[in-house]
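Sequence only, no structure available. Ideas?
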Amino acid sequence: MSSFPEITVVIPCLNEELTVVACVKEALEAFRTGNLAGEVVVADNGSTDDSRALALEAGARVVCAERRGYGAALMAGIDAAGGRFVVMGDADGSYDFGDTVKFVAALRGGAELVQGCRLPSAGGKIEEGAMPWLHRLVGNPGLTWLARLMFRTPVHDVYCGLRGFSKARYVAMGLRCTGMEFATEMIIKAALHNVITAEVPVTLRRDGRGGRAPHLRTFRDGWRTLRLFLLFSPRWVHVIPGMLLSGFGFLLGVLALVSAKIGPATLGPHSLLVASAALLVGKQALWMGVFARTFATLEGIAPVSPGLVVFRRYFTLERVIVLALLSMAAGVGLVAATFLHWRGQGYGPLDYAKTLVWVVPGISLVALGGQALIGSFALSLLTLERK
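Reply:
I predicted one. Tokens follow.
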């Protein structure tokens, strides 16, 4: 172990006395064969067996992560790492730490994140019985596809726990998740921050836990990963649905106002009500998307969005107030015109087919203006210049 390591292998550990020694020795052997200046840090997450003592005896430096969780353990280990490069991998014997040499080579070549890939389609290998069929055929491919779609990440195996990265880049990304989502958060933030990413094929072995239950829970952790995708993507959760709903509502409203025929159906006041609901929900979704991305930027969760910069440049508080008041005034005018018509009829029964084409757009304009007015003040509070 060098006093000034280039590479730190971080191994999170919770009751892995059966396998942690072999993992540490594999990493140390990789340093020797690859002529690497390295150290092994075992981040213990509250083991009640002999994992800590065995890891120390095998040549690792042991740090204790007081907060429970896979991510919390890794954070403690990475924080303690002395190398400028870090390779992380599980302590259950499922990964070959001899692959550390490949990760270091890619990092030295300019990559800032090097993701292992276990899938044969990208050169990896999964030994028989090493991965449940549900993970191999459904969960991992499905979540990887979503990550590639939503965040444009180049990786093909988002769940692979063997990966290497620049410690400086890791610090800059500011990861926060303390559970199993930690590994996925790293992939998402690497994509959002344009981190130079590479992949290397690795082999997934059957773990050496002797039949003990794995730490990963299929449905709970799968949902937590999906939830993280959604939380980190206002574009897919708010903006795209909001644009689709708003566009649909506007188009349907115009067609309903002119009593357009679609096949045997004639659009009218009822279609106008549906259009109003779609337009209002869509507009609210768009505002929530702006809030979510602004908050994420201010908190360092996501980088600055060029689209958001343009929005804030042209839609200042003052301009939105003017537009909102004009919208509300137009809406009040339409409702007032209907009221005057009603009064002219002696406040008697109205022909809803005729009056709703005035009332529904009027109320919609008032509601849209109100949304914009309230939303613009909330957004201005979020972006208020302060120390």
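The radius of gyration is 28 Å.
Hope that gets you unstuck.
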